[in-house]
Design brief:
Order of helices and strands: HHHHHHH
Largest sheet: none
Oligomer: single chain
Shape: globular
Bound molecules: protoporphyrin IX containing FE, isoquinoline
């Protein structure tokens, strides 16, 4: 199925509303993930090596933002190019680092579910099945591109 201009607009519109609350959203996303998969916490070095509470962790927001921003960008590219065109070197790096940190299929599912729930709570007034599909599809295609590169860097 191709990605339409309407789907792109749904993703971009909701991200525009959400980004001013980026810090709170990022925290919510992490909390949701660890509620479902507590063991995933150990994967993140900046959480593992730190005793400060999650909401005080300086790196947490930036990391959570990467997932929102890259999924949103993926939606824009899918509409324009019909495929995820994150720079080749970036995808290789993402694939290699997620491979190295021990990320597996189940983790991608937990993050997908958590991401969609977080967005739903952030934009309840405009949330609809089409919006859920658009974010879900953009995420799936981005993940597929990352998974293709999930091997050690040469
Ligand atoms: C690191 C994006 C899915 C766990 C990162 C980084 C980015 C990123 C940009 C930092 C740069 C790097 O280390 O390569 C994404 C995107 C995802 C995704 C766009 C899906 C669309 C996941 C999933 C997990 C995960 C499903 C597992 C729960 C990690 C870990 C790191 C990381 C453990 C390293 C953190 C550290 O520095 O210790 N991710 N990620 N990621 N990601 Fe993801
Ligand atoms: C995946 N990779 C890096 C950071 C993340 C933050 C929140 C949810 C998923 C993530």
């Amino acid at each position: 199925m191709g990605f339409t201009a309407e789907q792109e607009a749904l993703v971009v519109k909701s991200w525009d509303v959400m980004k001013k609350d980026a810090a709170a959203l990022g925290l919510k996303l992490f909390l949701r993930i660890f509620e479902i998969a507590p063991s995933a916490r150990r994967l993140f070095s900046f959480l593992r090596d730190s005793d400060v509470p999650l909401d005080k962790n300086p790196k947490l927001k930036a990391h959570a933002m990467a997932v929102f921003v890259m999924t949103c960008e993926s939606a824009v590219q899918l509409r324009k190019a019909g495929e995820v065109t994150v720079r080749e070197s970036t995808l290789k790096k993402l694939g290699a680092s997620h491979f190295k940190h021990g990320v597996v299929d189940e983790h991608f599912e937990v993050v997908r579910f958590s991401l969609l729930e977080t967005i739903k709570e952030a934009v309840p007034d405009i949330w609809c099945p089409e919006m859920k599909n658009a974010w879900g599809e953009a995420y799936d295609q981005l993940v597929a591109a990352i998974k293709e590169e999930m091997k050690p860097l040469p």
